[in-house]
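Researcher: We plan to redesign the surface later, but first we want a full-length starting point. Tokens attached.
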């Protein structure tokens, strides 16, 4: 879908409103009034067989009766008439917005109708927004092609929403918040034009600086990752993603027919593609305002100036675990500060100017911090009895115009600061109600900038067909034998192809029990596709020290699991137990799972996710900031585990996931890793198909 094709949809020179009406509160009436009455300069045609004229305009009985060219048709008619209407006009009109509801969100019959329209769109090369959507608004061309009222201010924020009602609420809130938009687009059921196509389109839109999206579900994970990863390198994408709980995900399915994926995997996908994730609606709005008005921060160093010690303490706490830090003040600057500030003031960062601080004190301190080359300065204020709020606001505004300086006001209060807040809005400053909100928003903006600075293109993993064929031969044989899972020895053979070694092992029979050559101590276990959880079912015996114990344990296990295969494994030293797995996510495809393993996996839940593909450098970076990074940094004087070796194992697992799609479930639990020069080894492997 090219940029120009979507430009014809969102900036049309002519529009037909199908279902136009003059009846009060009808959607067709609201659409007609919005398009005609809010400044759109293009041609407008009304279509409704019930009218000959609507007002002073001719009303056509159908789209095909319109004698002139039509760039966009907006349909607000019963769902049962939509397919026929598009079908009859598809050779003439290539862009449609389906406002009508009654499609996949209603169930099976609605989904069938939606599928028919989608098939027609593909055959005829049509662009269709919706169905079941609010429409869109393009303030740059004064076009409100929706049934929401009003015309938002023209600006640089593009807002895409899967909820029409939320889009209406945001537009209303935008009036007070002074949010200004390049586009507001409701996607509805996303039959054809989804978040991915819109991200790509808006990424090429010079009028858009930041893309904000309210998202309930992602339609196509691979397409989304490709579009978002490409666009995030040149402009920020801020997403408010619903569906953090299982109950919410059920609600979403009934609302739009969307499929919500695992929330944690979604977060991983966002991080991988440089998307800024907002945790709630307030943060979403804060991020859009900040990014819309400020250049991206090139430095993580910050200064805090305050007239209230308590506010300064809260600001200091807000930096905890953030990718921002309070800058050190040079001795030279401290001497200057001591000359201009009262003796009781703090010349450490945060700089406490005391409660009687006026604009002259703020000005002098901001000038010193500017000379310290501190890019980001949080200007805190509480309206105390003697505080000249308006004059201090003017100083903050003045310094916000200086090059390479981000002045972020945090004026805390209500009526006493209201005029100052209005002046900030007029001058492009964003005031935050709390230090925590200000620091949190700037940090996320900074992390995006770091993503653009350090991101490297990761190409798709190459298929090794020789390796794949060898693995497939082993798996296919097991499937032909009607086994549900590979034996340990088969699993070990497959894993070796992907660079993952298994612990030394051997099948145990009555005939070979005295000649295993594995040494002691040994572990004895059931190797069966019907006994997958060995510890729980008594299919594992550890610490076998000699041949007599081995024979006794073997006899016990034969009696408990008659006819099942039994294997012995060398019981080796370990430093830590890791779990490795593959999750086939419905949205994003194969996901690699790794974390603290063994019997405590479910207790501690120190698990991480990686999306395919990644390169070794990316994988190792993720390991070093994962929930188990402590294993690779050294613990309490212990030597660190080899992160490079572990990264190679995870890369091998990615190749395995990509080359063996018929494997439904996979895990290694545990993988023993060591804090000295010894290779990791898999102790238990499940490959289930």
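Model: Full-length starting sequence:
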């Amino acid at each position: 879908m090219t940029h120009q094709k979507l430009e014809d949809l969102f900036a049309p020179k002519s529009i037909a409103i199908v279902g136009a009406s003059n009846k009060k509160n009808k959607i067709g009436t609201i659409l007609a009034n919005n398009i005609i009455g809010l400044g759109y300069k293009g041609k407008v045609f009304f279509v409704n067989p019930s009218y000959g004229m609507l007002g002073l305009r001719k009303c056509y009985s159908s789209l095909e009766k319109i004698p002139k060219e039509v760039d966009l048709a907006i349909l607000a008619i019963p769902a049962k008439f939509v397919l026929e209407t598009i079908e009859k006009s598809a050779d003439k009109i290539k862009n449609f917005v389906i406002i009508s509801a009654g499609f996949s969100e209603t169930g099976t019959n609605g989904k069938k109708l939606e599928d028919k329209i989608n098939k027609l769109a593909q055959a005829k090369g049509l662009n269709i927004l919706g169905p079941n959507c609010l429409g869109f608004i393009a303030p740059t061309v004064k076009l409100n092609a929706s049934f929401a009222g009003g015309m938002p201010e023209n600006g640089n924020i593009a807002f895409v929403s899967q909820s029409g009602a939320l889009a209406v609420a945001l537009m209303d809130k935008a009036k007070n918040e002074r949010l200004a938009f390049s586009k507001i687009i409701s996607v509805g059921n996303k039959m054809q034009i989804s978040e991915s196509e819109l991200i790509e389109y808006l990424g090429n839109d010079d009028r858009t600086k930041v893309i904000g999206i309210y998202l309930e579900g992602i339609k196509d994970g691979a397409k989304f990752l490709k579009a978002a990863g490409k666009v995030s390198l040149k402009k920020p994408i801020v997403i408010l993603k619903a569906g953090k709980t299982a109950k919410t995900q059920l609600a979403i399915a009934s609302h739009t027919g969307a499929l919500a994926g695992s929330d944690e995997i979604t977060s991983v996908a966002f991080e991988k593609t440089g998307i800024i994730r907002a945790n709630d609606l307030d943060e979403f709005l804060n991020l859009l305002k900040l990014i819309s008005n400020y250049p991206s921060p090139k430095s993580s160093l910050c200064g805090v100036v305050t007239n209230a010690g308590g506010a300064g303490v809260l600001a200091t706490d807000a930096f905890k675990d953030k990718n921002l830090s309070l800058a050190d003040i040079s001795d030279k600057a401290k001497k200057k500060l001591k000359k201009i500030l009262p003796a009781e003031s703090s010349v450490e960062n945060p700089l406490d100017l005391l409660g009687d601080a006026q604009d002259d004190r703020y000005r002098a301190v901001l000038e010193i911090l500017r000379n310290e080359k501190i890019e980001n300065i949080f200007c805190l204020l509480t309206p105390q009895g003697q505080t000249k709020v308006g004059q201090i606001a003017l100083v903050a505004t003045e310094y916000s115009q200086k090059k390479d300086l981000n002045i972020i006001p945090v004026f805390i209060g209500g009526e006493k600061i209201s005029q100052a807040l209005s002046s900030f809005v007029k001058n492009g400053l964003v005031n935050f109600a709390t230090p925590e909100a200000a620091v949190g928003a700037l940090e996320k903006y900074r992390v995006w900038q770091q993503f653009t600075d350090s991101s490297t293109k990761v190409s798709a993993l190459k298929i090794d067909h020789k390796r794949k064929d060898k693995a497939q031969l082993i798996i296919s044989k097991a499937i032909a034998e009607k086994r549900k899972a590979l034996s340990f020895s088969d699993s070990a053979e497959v894993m070796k192809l992907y660079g993952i070694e298994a612990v030394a092992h051997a099948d145990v029979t009555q005939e070979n029990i005295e000649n295993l050559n594995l040494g002691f101590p040994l572990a004895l276990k059931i190797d069966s596709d019907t006994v997958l959880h060995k510890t729980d079912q008594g299919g594992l015996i550890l610490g076998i020290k000699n041949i007599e114990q081995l024979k006794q344990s073997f006899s016990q296990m034969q009696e408990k699991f008659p006819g099942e295969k039994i294997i012995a494994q060398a019981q080796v030293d370990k430093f830590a137990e890791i779990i490795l797995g593959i999750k086939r996510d419905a949205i994003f495809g194969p996901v690699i799972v790794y974390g603290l393993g063994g019997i405590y996996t479910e207790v501690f839940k120190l698990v991480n996710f990686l999306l395919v593909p990644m390169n070794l450098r990316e994988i190792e970076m993720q390991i070093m900031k994962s929930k188990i990074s402590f294993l690779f940094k050294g613990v309490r004087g212990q030597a660190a585990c080899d992160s490079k070796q572990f990264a190679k194992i995870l890369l091998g697992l990615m190749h395995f996931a990509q080359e063996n799609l018929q494997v439904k479930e996979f895990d290694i639990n545990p993988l023993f890793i060591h804090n000295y020069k010894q290779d990791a080894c898999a102790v238990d492997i499940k490959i289930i198909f």
